[in-house]
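Feature request, filed as a ticket because there's no other form

It would be nice if the structure record came with a short human-readable summary line next to the tokens. Right now we just get the raw output. Example of a typical job, pasted below so the devs can see what we mean:
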Amino acid sequence: MRITLLLIACVIAYTAVAQPANTMRVASYNLRYNTPNDGADAWPNRIEMVKSLIRYHKIELFGTQEGLRGQLNDVAQLPGWAFVGKGRDDGKEAGEHSAIFYKKDRFDLLTTGDFWLSETPDKPGKGWDATCCNRICTWARFRDKQTKKEFYFFSAHFDHQGVEARRQSGRLMVEKIKAIAKNEPVIFVGDLNSTPDTEQVKTIQASLQDAYQATKQPPYGPVGTFTGFKSDAPLNDRIDYIFVSKSIDVLSYAALTDRLDQRFPSDHLLVVADVVIK
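Raw output as currently delivered:
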């Protein structure tokens, strides 16, 4: 399958930069849930694009948002990949997930867990002024087989309607990350439905580095990360993020605009960073 790359010269430069051997390529990707209402952009028409995107850009570890269990199983058909994460509706497989995918030849999964973005994080439920949906965060502790270093990875999806729910979700994420990971290295990715000027993003930035700001190379690609499947989307608003603890260096950051036959693999861009645990 041939993927049409926008600004191909820049993409080649991005992929060709020499990186230290202990570099990890991590990402955040809102997959857009599987609904026939998307017509030509419905999941059955996108799955091979998503898999090709992950494979071509040599992603090694990424968090997802919105994926239903069947979608996650589809992505996991990529050889050598596995995922963790529970459904937000019942804590099992029902509803959307904030799953974490990892390459089994690079990482050992040590432990994993989930919590809900609500006043009762230990059980399924809506939080604060959220009216539509339960929101969930999945986390995992990994050991890098190359370096033997251990770290935590979190994937979350903030509410799209509740202003207070997003604000409180930012506070809860900081509290939970500190309680779960303590002083270990942390990578937190997600669709926060929030721009960088909001209180919830600033709350997280006070504890973790924003990869867009911390990258040693200039960020590649547009600032905005949501396309709505539209090729002429302005891409001004950044709502998908990669955060890392201060014990992690960010070598590069990119929001990738790859398309196949003028169609996007998802309604969000794949956000990628090359990182190194010090």
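Something like this underneath would help us a lot:
The radius of gyration is 17 Å.
The longest strand covers residues 107-116.
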